[in-house]
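User: Please fill in residues for this 326-position structure.
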């Protein structure tokens, strides 16, 4: 369905993405040998509020480091990006990041946001449209991990398309999923397109572990919020205090893993189904893969993007890559 009636923006394309059934997904995930729940279910209203608290926790370097680095390299980005480019943001998260980019670019012509959450997407693009009155603004409501074609509502006469994927969200995908996703980005931006992407770097294990185990307990609360959702939305019969947050860096796989680990032998019931836990058994809730600069360049190269420039902060905690279609 295509709808251009959203107030304040130039066009809105609603592809009506299917929202995953929470109950069915939980039941299927807990039936696996390694019990799992997808991280997309972290982000209800309460989970999103908690995540905002994580982003400003002193141990969680990702958000502040990326924004500071974006501001630091603004002049270099300006020199690389052609006049009148179309910026395509995958997953419209913190408006601080897209604002930092739009302010750095030489007269961008258009901003196109892609997100699965219709309400969040509309709020973001209306805000950007109001604050950047000379910018053409559009949106696609879709699962950005799906294959997408360039919308007919967007400017078709401009070859310069810049995909923007901040926040190291690419790390939540397995390397193979990331490769497939980047291939789809490459398809959307076309042969003259470019990519600006934030990628978290491999670093001291203590720094990584501390980032996902902040002293204030925000990340633990964020993880345990999944169990609150199961209890209150699905009528789950479980004792939340019988589980604990567990996050650690798996060096062999190059990723942070987040789990909800059972403190004791127990059974829980959801949707009329019973699930047994042994003490120490976990529900795997999220991965966050970390890369070296060379590892990510190699990964992107297999998806049709060549490295033009890569920047890191002074501590080599985080990287931003500017890439061109090849």
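Assistant: Residues filled in for all 326 positions:
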């Amino acid at each position: 369905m295509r709808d251009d009636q959203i107030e304040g923006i130039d066009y809105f394309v609603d592809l009506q993405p299917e929202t995953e059934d929470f109950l069915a997904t939980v039941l299927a995930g807990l039936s696996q040998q390694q019990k799992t729940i997808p991280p997309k279910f972290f982000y209800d209203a309460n989970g999103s509020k908690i995540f905002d608290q994580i982003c400003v926790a002193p141990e969680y370097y990702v958000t502040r480091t990326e924004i500071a680095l974006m501001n630091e390299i603004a002049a270099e980005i300006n020199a690389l990006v052609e006049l009148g480019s179309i910026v395509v943001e995958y997953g419209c998260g913190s408006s601080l990041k897209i604002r930092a980019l739009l302010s750095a670019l030489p007269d961008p012509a258009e901003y196109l946001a892609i997100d699965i959450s219709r309400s969040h997407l509309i709020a973001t693009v209306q805000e950007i449209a109001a604050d950047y009155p000379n910018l053409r603004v559009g949106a696609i409501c879709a699962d950005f991990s799906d294959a997408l074609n360039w919308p007919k509502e967007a400017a078709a006469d401009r070859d310069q398309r810049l995909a923007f994927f901040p926040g190291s969200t690419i790390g939540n995908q397995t390397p193979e999923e990331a490769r497939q996703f980047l291939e789809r980005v490459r398809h959307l931006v076309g042969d003259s397109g470019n990519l600006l992407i934030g990628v978290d770097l491999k670093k001291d294990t203590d720094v990584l572990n501390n980032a996902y185990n902040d002293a204030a307990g925000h990340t633990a609360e964020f993880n345990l919020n999944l169990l609150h959702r199961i209890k209150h939305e699905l009528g789950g019969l479980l004792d939340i205090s019988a589980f604990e947050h567990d996050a650690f860096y798996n060096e062999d796989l190059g990723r942070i893993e987040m789990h909800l680990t059972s403190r004791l032998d127990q059974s829980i019931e959801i949707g009329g189904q019973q699930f047994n836990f042994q003490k120490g058994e976990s529900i795997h809730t999220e991965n966050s893969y970390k890369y070296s600069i060379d590892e990510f360049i190699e990964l992107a190269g297999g998806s049709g993007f060549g490295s033009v420039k890569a920047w890191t902060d002074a501590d080599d905690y985080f990287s931003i890559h500017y890439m061109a279609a090849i």
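For context: Residues 25-55+218-289 form one domain.
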